[in-house]
Structures are given as structure tokens and as C-alpha cells.
Specification:
single chain, 347 residues, 4-stranded antiparallel beta sheet
């Protein structure tokens, strides 16, 4: 596994060592006898959700947490926030053991889960914010100051006095985020915060998180299926698959290590059969079921062979347009999970 080496000058704000979570699932045979056995003597199988993962995060870092569905991302976040007890290993967040749920710990963290609502549907957001402020014992002067500041950052002017049900999805998500940040936590755990938002709302949310991190030095651990969230906010990523941490390091290094390709986009004057194009590189275009060939194609070409391949393409084919870019990060990450790229090994 590639590991990110933290700066020795800073004390990590999050430390996980050999963190594991195993869920017992009761087994039951069908029928009355199966029910009786299940009642008096249960048997279990054990499902490992997270398997001995270790990492550290420094104060002020914004770290992406990537993995396919069911990889263990949300389970890890729940252990880091104290919602569930780990089966093994240790975890420290802002100097506390999360599952002990100390009030001093809860004052310094927040967890935002996409489309999981905490604000009351029929009440204006401001009423719910006052309840949150009372729970966290925030003085009224600070409440007014923080609400004003966050409202401006989130572009929610005039929205907090309207019932939540009358706000758009993007406005509701922003109001939920405002509520989660009212007590000004040091650590933000964000689980799919832009889920379901349109492109403009996603961009607005990313800009807010970037500004909030810069202004307050907050530490952010972010999971998202929208890779634009990760590329816009995170220099470092953790990659988890089947409960195991398979990468911890810079996003650019991940792409360099596991995408030793450049993507060549071609527009051809005449259709070209897919088998002929495969001679130049890995074809990323959907195959033509009729076998007539394609006029537009994406090829993945080894970086060291790029110049030679482009020259050959121009010489062999009638090319109308050609562009060379890095491959989409979504496809690179997808190949890591699908095993299309060699397994990570110790560096």
C-alpha cells in the first residue's frame, strides 16, 4: 500500500490504527424448527465491512475518501464520528476516542450525509438553527454573527425564514450544511454532500467548502461519487475497496501511477473499424454493433509511446481533429476497483 507520510511538525487531528468493523448476521433455517433453533441457539456469519485500515490526517487537510458502493466508506465515517463502535483497532479524533461520545468531542466535529435531513420540514430553517444553537449552548451574539457569515458564504440571503419544504433541493442542502457548521467544528465529515444536486448547485457547494476551509482551517474528510468534488477540493485521497485501504497519497500521484496513459481523441473523415484502431491503443469508444466502424474515437496510449503513436495516426488515417488529454479520473478510479490496474503494493 502506498502511504501518505504526515508532516512531523503537526499533531494529527485524526488517527486510525488497524481500524476494523465486523457485522454479525444471524442465520436462520426456514420453517418452524428453524425458527425455534433461531430463538434458542442462534448461529452467525460475520461480514467484515472495514479491515485493519490505518491513516492519519493533519489539521486543515481536505482529504477525499474514495471507493465503490459497499467498500466501507460510510462505516468508516460512522466509526470516526462515534456512531458505531469499532470491532478492532483504535481511533482518535481531535484528541478523543469517538465512541465515548464526550461532549467536548461532539462540539468539535460534524457529520453531513447527502439528503439526510436534520432541519424540520415545515419550519423555517432559522427556527431549527435556534434549536441547534441551544443544544450547543452558543451565545445569541455568536449565533447572529455565524448565521450572517454562513448565510453570505452560502448565498442563502432571504431563505432561512421560509419553511424548508418551500426551498429547492440545493437550498435545502445548503441550509443543512449551515446547521451542521453553526457550532464551528474543527473537523467536517462529509458523506456525499452534493448528492442529487444540479451542476450549478454542486459548483456552489464546492466553492463554499473551499472558502470555509481557507477561512477557518477546518479539516475535511469527503466522500463523493462526483469526481469533480474530489479534483476541485482534494490534493490527497484515501482509496478503499472491499473494506481495505488500498491507496493513501496525492491524487496526482494516483493518476500518474495507475494511469500511465494519455487519452487521444480523434475525429476521422471516414469510419474506421474498431479492430484497426486497436492497433494504436486501447479503444475507449463504444463498439459499433454493425461493424461499420466509427468516425469519433477515444484511445488510451502509453505515455512513452504517445509521440510515435500520434505521428502514425496522422500518417495512416485521414484525421480531421486530434486532441491529447489526461484520461478522465472517473475511469482511472474505476479501473483500480475493477482490477484493471495492478494491485497496489508497498512502495
Amino acid at each position: 500500500m502506498f502511504s501518505h507520510v504526515p508532516s512531523p511538525q503537526l499533531e494529527p487531528i485524526i488517527t486510525a490504527r488497524e481500524l476494523s468493523k465486523v457485522y454479525p448476521v444471524a442465520l436462520k433455517d426456514p420453517g418452524v424448527l428453524g425458527t425455534l433453533r433461531h430463538f434458542f441457539r442462534r448461529t452467525y456469519r460475520y461480514i467484515p465491512a472495514v479491515q485493519s485500515i490505518s491513516f492519519q490526517i493533519q489539521p486543515g487537510e481536505v482529504v477525499g475518501f474514495l471507493g465503490p458502493n459497499g467498500a466501507g466508506k460510510t462505516t468508516t465515517l460512522k466509526m470516526l464520528t462515534g456512531l458505531i463502535h469499532p470491532s478492532g483497532g483504535t481511533v482518535q479524533v481531535v484528541g478523543h476516542t469517538p465512541y465515548q461520545r464526550d461532549p467536548a468531542f461532539l462540539q468539535q466535529i460534524t457529520l453531513v450525509m447527502g439528503q439526510k435531513q436534520q432541519l424540520l420540514w415545515d419550519l423555517p430553517a432559522m427556527d431549527s438553527l435556534r434549536i441547534n444553537a441551544a443544544v450547543y449552548e452558543i451565545p445569541e451574539k455568536d449565533v447572529q454573527e455565524r448565521v450572517g457569515e454562513l448565510t453570505e458564504l452560502l448565498n442563502l440571503e432571504g431563505k432561512l425564514t421560509q419553511p424548508m419544504r418551500k426551498l429547492s433541493l440545493g437550498e435545502r442542502m445548503k441550509a443543512e450544511l449551515l446547521a451542521a457548521l453553526l457550532h464551528r467544528p474543527q473537523v467536517l465529515f462529509l458523506d456525499e454532500p452534493t448528492l442529487g444536486l444540479d451542476v450549478n448547485a454542486q459548483a456552489s457547494m464546492r466553492q463554499f467548502l473551499r472558502d470555509y476551509n481557507r477561512r477557518y482551517g477546518a479539516t475535511v474528510l469527503l466522500t463523493s461519487h462526483y469526481m469533480a468534488d474530489i479534483t476541485a477540493l482534494c490534493e490527497r485521497v484515501l482509496v478503499i475497496d472491499a473494506g481495505r485501504l488500498i491507496y493513501d497519497g496525492d491524487l496526482d500521484e494516483l493518476l500518474e501511477q495507475f494511469a500511465p496513459y494519455r487519452e487521444v481523441k480523434l475525429e476521422l473523415a471516414h469510419p474506421c473499424p474498431i479492430p484497426q484502431l486497436e492497433f494504436y491503443g486501447e479503444v475507449r469508444t463504444d463498439r459499433d454493433p454493425g461493424g461499420a466502424g466509427v468516425c469519433e474515437v477515444r484511445l488510451w496510449v502509453q505515455r512513452e509511446q504517445l509521440t510515435q503513436t500520434v505521428a502514425k495516426l496522422l500518417a495512416d488515417l485521414e484525421v480531421l481533429d486530434l486532441t491529447v488529454t489526461d484520461p478522465p479520473i472517473e475511469e482511472v478510479i474505476g479501473r483500480v476497483f475493477q482490477g484493471g490496474i495492478p494491485t497496489l503494493t508497498d512502495s
